[in-house]
UniProtKB/TrEMBL annotation:
Membrane topology designation: Single-pass membrane protein
Cofactor: heme
Annotated organism of origin: Perilla frutescens var. hirtella
Primary residence: membrane
Record's protein name: (+)-abscisic acid 8'-hydroxylase
Catalysed reaction, written as an equation: 2-cis-(+)-abscisate + reduced [NADPH--hemoprotein reductase] + O2 = (+)-8'-hydroxyabscisate + oxidized [NADPH--hemoprotein reductase] + H2O + H(+)
Keywords: Heme, Iron, Membrane, Metal-binding, Monooxygenase, Oxidoreductase, Transmembrane, Transmembrane helix
Subcellular location per the Swiss-Prot or TrEMBL entry: Membrane
Transmembrane annotation, as ranges: 6-24
CDD domains per record: CYP90-like
Length: 463
């Protein structure tokens, strides 16, 4: 009897192994026979990096799409890549088949932000961080900080008064870092803010520099400032532990006892959130000022909407959450700005295994780039795509065609806060100030976000 069972076990195992081997061969054979997407890989190592980064990325994308279709291969930043330019393919990579495409960043960026930050992870650790971040940035939480954001906006704009010219992007960055710090630390630990900002600015300075960690390089100073930042955060965390008080801000959410995050994990994620929140929102705000200055009818409509809100709050003072829900025209201006400016031209994923994708092979390790900018600027998705026309958002865009905050498990958890802080500052800007651009402003810098040339120098005066 025992011999019979042994025979049965052995034959079943042999059969299963052969079947597995056969299936693996079949998968390998199918993949080996699949063609790579069409396209060119450019020069050895540098590939087509220069062609992509030296001009409006749309010129690169459009000429490739015209020649090769909506999926094509190329080689940028030292990596073989597949670029995908249709809304459906973007959904596959970011949502339906997201398990096959992991987020990917250069190792130097990971080191600088901190390896344990949300962007670099998947699975349980990522879901936990996302829950904690969303808990602090959902409408129910951020509606409690509207009046603080209101004060930050008023103070920022007052600091612009009387100056001969303003570099919009720089000033917006000051506004957005202050809002980011408010959302992370609430109104506490104010005495550490200046020191935190000083270290953060040094980190930011070295972020896009060559990753050479030798004394004297920007990268080296940034890595040093990164360590100092972690020390300041460790001090704040231990102070909060001693005080044993509850906080409803992001740091409070990360420090919840049940969450079990280490101090290093908290520090990496606090720094990560500042990175994600600051330049993105400041860049969109810079574009908004440009588009409003260039489109007087739209500016008039926004101003009328905001003046009506200002009149309605005369007896009670500052803005409240309900006011921001009455800003329909302004909201469409923000949406249209994010579409036209498409500050994040694309994002990066990496194939975790050989993937069959729309009849092509994407080899394991290759980068996959959904082209947000191309999708936003395609006439198939938006009529007259190069026209700035906020009224187009009176009708909801077709699915997967409007992705300023990405899509899927890594989509932007800060989008509600970003929209709120933009609405608040536009309210004060349009009701109290006039601004004009200093000279013609047609140039765009792409590094890394698409930004008006020189950060949009403007003149501003009180109404
Ligand atoms: C207008 C401003 C903003 C834009 C356009 C923007 C855009 C994006 C996009 C496209 C992604 C997804 C990237 C990808 O899939 O690879 C993302 C992720 C993220 N954003 Fe934003 N963002 C903005 C503001 C903010 C703010 C204000 C915060 C925080 C307060 C924030 C926090 C994050 C975080 C933590 C992630 C990573 C999420 C994850 O990996 O799960 N962002 N953002």
């Amino acid at each position: 009897m025992e011999l019979v069972s042994l025979f049965f076990v052995v034959t079943t195992s042999i059969f299963t192994l052969s079947l597995l081997n056969y299936s693996l061969k079949l998968v390998w054979w199918r993949h080996a026979r699949l063609p790579l997407p069409p396209g060119t890989m450019g020069w050895p190592y540098i590939g087509e990096t220069f062609q992509l980064y030296s001009q409006n990325p749309n010129t690169f994308f459009s000429s490739k799409v015209k020649k090769y279709g909506s999926i094509f291969k190329t080689h940028v930043l030292g990596c073989p890549c597949v670029m995908i330019s249709s809304p459906e393919a973007a959904k596959l990579v970011l949502v339906s088949k997201a398990h096959l495409f992991k987020p990917t960043f250069p190792a130097s960026k990971e080191r600088m932000i901190g390896k344990q930050a949300i962007f670099f992870h998947e699975g349980d650790y990522h879901s936990k961080l996302r829950r904690l971040v969303l808990r602090s940035f959902m409408p129910d939480s951020i509606k409690n900080i509207v009046s603080d954001i209101d004060s930050i906006a008023i103070n920022s704009l007052e600091s612009w008064e009387g100056r001969t010219f303003i570099t919009t992007f720089q000033e917006m960055k000051t506004y957005t870092i202050n809002v980011a710090l408010l959302s992370i630390f609430g109104k506490d630990e104010v005495s550490y803010r200046d020191e935190l900002k000083k270290c953060y600015y040094t980190v930011e300075n070295g972020y896009n520099s060559l990753p050479i960690n030798l004394p004297g390089t920007l990268f080296h100073s940034a890595m040093k400032a990164r360590k100092d930042l972690a020390k300041i955060l460790a001090t704040i965390i231990s102070l909060r532990r001693e005080m044993k008080t509850d906080h409803s801000d992001l740091l409070g959410s990360f420090m919840g006892d049940a969450e079990g995050l280490t101090d290093d994990q908290i520090a990496d994620n606090v720094i990560g959130v500042i990175f994600a929140a600051r330049d993105t929102t400041a860049t969109v705000l810079t574009w908004i000022l440009k588009y409003l200055a260039e489109n007087p009818t739209v500016l008039q409509a926004v101003t009328e909407e905001q003046e009506a809100i200002m009149r309605s709050k005369e007896d009670r003072g500052g803005l409240i959450w309900a006011d921001t829900k009455k800003m329909g025209v302004t909201t469409k201006v923000i949406q249209e700005t994010m579409r036209v400016a498409s500050i994040l031209s694309f994002t990066f994923r990496e194939a975790v295994e050989d993937v069959e994708f729309k009849g092509y092979l994407i080899p394991k390790g290759w980068k996959v780039l959904p082209l947000f900018r191309h999708i936003h600027h395609s006439p198939e998705n938006f009529t007259d795509p190069h026209n700035f026309d906020p009224s187009r958002f009176e009708v909801a865009p077709k699915p997967n065609t409007f992705l300023p905050f990405g899509s899927g498990a890594h989509s932007c958890p800060g989008n509600e806060l970003a929209k709120l802080e933009m609405l608040v500052i536009i309210h004060h800007l349009t009701t109290k100030y006039r601004w004009s651009m200093m000279g013609p402003q047609n140039g765009i810098q792409y590094g890394p976000f698409a930004l008006p040339q020189n950060g949009l120098p403007i003149k501003i005066s009180l109404k």
